[in-house]
Design a protein that fits this description.
The longest helix has 7 residues. By secondary structure, this protein is mainly β. The chain has one domain: Methylamine Dehydrogenase, Chain H (7 Propeller). The chain is built from 2 helices and 36 strands.
Length: about 375
Amino acid sequence: MFDINQWPMSTWGSSLTRWAGNQGGIPGATPVWEIGLGEGPSGLFTGLSMTSDVVYANALAEGCFAYNAETGKQLWLSHPFIPQGAHELSINGDWLAAGFLILDRNTGEVKEDFRTLLEKEGIAHSRPLNKYVRNLPYQAGFIRFAGTLDNYNACYFDAEGEVDCFAPGVWPSVIEHGTSFIFGHIGKDRVGCYDLKKRNMVWARTLPKLQQHEWAMEAVALYQEKLYIPVMYASLQCLDARTGDLCWEYSEPEKFLIQGDAYYGGRPTRFGLCGDRIYLGRSRASTGWLQAHDIHTGEPLWKIEVEEGMEFCICGDLIFGVEDSWPVAWDRYDGRKVWQADEALVSAYFVMSGGNRVVYSSTLGEIRCFQWEENYISPARPSQV
């Protein structure tokens, strides 16, 4: 089982697909445990992460919780207020990054607050830091950044607790493990590569925009020296991560792009890579779809309608998500729905897997944990996998 935080992808949007490792199974339809904090701000879960032993969750007006993954018993509660918009949780060794806070994940004790660090470095921000944090594990530490579109800065927190503040040349989206390269967007319509050690730009590339006021990209993934970018509403691009050169591009059919004056291709709100497939979710109005693409060409392999705005978790041969408020799982090779819980979870928002469990949280203050006994092997899995 790979560490869930080593999945080589991050988005700068509010939703992202997480990868929980090489093993996943079909759970029982009834949760093995569930937690309810009640409706209202105190029960608004805005973040979720887990290992095989512990589930970590943010509640908007309460703080960060840790629960035993087997029983659901609360282990600790860290009371510092973690505002909405700073919901991402990331695990690295003994540290838990909760938005702009670094916590001891065994006790919940606050080890560092990046707001204070940035203030001490004299970095000014015209917008709240908590709206612009990013969940970027970098080697043995974390990088967090904040700022406006044209003026952003970052803090690097390593495993020894040392901190370095700097101004990257890109708005960071993903960092290549084992090197010092940061990839992200520049303004609204460019993507680039920044060298963290040398502190200089390596390359930059302009992306197409459908409308002048729109962002050109809302996600980026890095895999085997290739950078994958869903261009807003329009296409999917693959770039050479070393040079920024275009390797291939897939464009959505025009009938999916424009209907009257409305752009119908959809915002890329869910995005991930696994094996030889790219999984891209786009949302439009109150609905959306999840589509699998060939990683070598970008050609679509299958497509399913999904609930707009829901996070997904890739786990072995499965993709866990939500369909009309019901926790479900799809076969990631052919898109078939292979599991559904026996009860809907209203306002389900986050999903994460660890060990032999998958956990869903709701913005109405619920967490439900489902468990499986055997790993699922897709009948559509290619023979060479």
